[in-house]
Amino acid sequence: MTAELRGGGDLVVCDGASRTFGSGESAVVALQGATCRVRRSARIALTGPSGSGKSTLLHLMAGLDRPTAGTISWPGLPASVDHPGTVGVVFQGPSLMPPLNALENIAYPLLLSGMADGEARRAAAQAMEQIGIAELAGSLPDEMSGGQAQRVAVARALAASPALVLADEPTGQLDHEAGAVVMDALVRATDLLDAGLVVATHDPNVAARLDESWQIGDGRLRLLPLEAGAR
Ligand code: ADP
Ligand code: MG
Predict the structure, then answer these.
(1) How many angstroms separate the alpha carbon of residue 81 from the centre of ligand 1?
(2) What is the separation, in whole angstroms, between the first and last Cα of the chain?
(3) Which atom of ligand 1 is closest in space to residue 22's alpha carbon?
(4) Can you tell me the distance from the alpha carbon of 39 to that of 32, in angstroms, rounded to the nearest whole number?
(5) In this predicted model, what pLDDT tens digit does every residue of 10-59 receive, in sequence order?
(6) For the residues 192-200, what does the mean pLDDT come to?
(7) What is the number of the ligand 1 atom nearest to the C-alpha of 169?
(8) By alpha-carbon position, which residue is closest to atom 27 of ligand 1?
């Protein structure tokens, strides 16, 4: 970790970021003038009803989409946002590859990023250990519960030690108990990496696990004061 990051450099900064889909009469303003920053070690819940712009903002912060107005920058990331493994992303469904076992699913993106096979397997095994799912290493996706599969997806997102972790309704398809286990795994693994974490959710139980709350409604982001969002 660099001195700058230890000093709390912003991992991502959104400055008046907007995203409009389509044009003319059919244009949809999904996000309007979002200004926010995520620091190292931040634990942020991004809450808002369905269609409010949560995924749009997360995709912009992940570098998967570009704003149509305003800017997004990543001053504190150790490598370019496009560099594999710099940002870890967890989606609502685990989308594991059916023919690969858990360990292979986690190692696969590492191999794609150029890591040698042995090293990728070691990193995958370590991520599974940290998340408490080492016993699933040889299991195929079909053999896992939804919660187990989602913890594999968390390990996959974290195996490359990203500085920034973005999760889009990671417990949205799970019951309360399984969701709590997945959130435990996500928060614990993010803590170990000292990464920044943003979790989009409309589940108050999930939001309660985090330190800060951002609310979004109709594409407009509202940052609550720390006291209000604190546990
Ligand atoms: P949330 O994740 O909070 O449910 P989204 O960010 O997915 O909300 O969507 C915000 C708004 O933008 C919604 O009105 C949605 O229909 C619209 N939207 C999202 N993605 C697209 C797209 N690719 N094309 C057109 N409209 C979109
Ligand atoms: Mg969404």
Answers:
(1) 22
(2) 28
(3) 25
(4) 22
(5) 999 999 999 999 999 999 999 999 999 999 999 999 999 999 999 999 99
(6) 96
(7) 2
(8) 21
